[in-house]
Each structure stands twice: as structure tokens, then as C-alpha cells.
Amino acid sequence: MQWIFWAIFVASLLHVIEEYSFGFLDWARRIFPRLAPVITARRAGIINAILLLLALIAAALPGLPLALRLAIPSLIALNGLLHMLATIRLRRYSPGLVTGLILYLPLGVLAYVIAARTNTLTAAEAVLSVLLAIALHTVPLTWALLAARRADSGAGG
Question: How far apart are CA 87 and CA 82, in angstroms?
């Protein structure tokens, strides 16, 4: 099972490269104009560094509870799904779509299949890992919303 977490780490690196190379920040600023002032390269760098660190931890520490490790495959699958939905809804390419569809979605699902077959994945672990992924995915948006609120109130970002 260990190889899937290393594959997810590599996929995460490729996803960050795709987003950076094809202008995810500019895309996000156009889609969320109210948040545009706080969608910065610095924030994106921090968020991506955290993602890569979490993926690396999941890969390098196989002794962690399975629910914690599976939060990363769930997180990337959710991210791939959101890129796909954004592209469909907006009828324009969302930077990150290609790696989201080709790598994130399949690897995320495959991690759960492998865990179910080899590690007796329980329903509780599966649900907990998905809930953790959803919580992790809301962090960047919440951070941006709070920063935008502070900027609107004159307190800075």
C-alpha cells in the first residue's frame, strides 16, 4: 500500500506545477473578484507547502492511523473533482484540471480500494478520512475570507 502514498506525493508536485504554470492564481482572482486582493502567491505557496508536507508525511510515516493517511487521497480526489466541476460550470479550463482528472481522482479512489483490500478499512475510518479532507479543503477558503474581511475593515491582510 505504501507506493500509493508516494505516487500521491508525486502527483501533488505535478498538480502544483500545473496550477502555477497555467495561471491558477489569475484564474482564481477572476472567479472570486471579492477575494482577489488576498489571493496572493505567498498564500498559495503556504497552502501548497502544507499540502506537500501532509502528502509527504502520509507517505513517509506508514504507522500513522489509516484515517489520517487516507485524508490525503480524499483531499486530492476532492480537489480534482472541484477542478472538473469548475471547468464544466464556467466552461473554461481550471488550471489543475489535467492532473486533477488524470492523477488525483484515480489515485484518490485507488488508495481507498487498496486500503479496503489490504488493511481492513473500516467504515468509520473511511468517513473520518473524508471529513478530515473536507475540513482541510475549507482551510484556504476560510483563510482568504477572513483576510478579505480584515482588508475590507481596514485592518490589513
Answer: 8
Whether the predicted pLDDT of 153 surpasses 90: no
* Three-class DSSP labels, the chain: CHHHHHHHHHHHHHHHHHHHHCCHHHHHHHHCHHHHHHCCHHHHHHHHHHHHHHHHHHHHCCCCCHHHHHHHHHHHHHHHHHHHHHHHHHCCCCCCHHHHHHHHHHHHHHHHHHHHHHCCCCHHHHHHHHHHHHHHHHHHHHHHHHHHHHHHCCCCC
pLDDT value at 157 more than 50: no
Pairwise CA distance, residues 139 & 18, whole Å: 21
Q: What is the pLDDT of residues 19-50, one digit of tens each?
A: 999 999 999 999 989 889 999 999 999 999 99
Tell me the torsion sign for CA atoms 52, 59, 82, 135.
Answer: negative
pTM of the model: 0.90
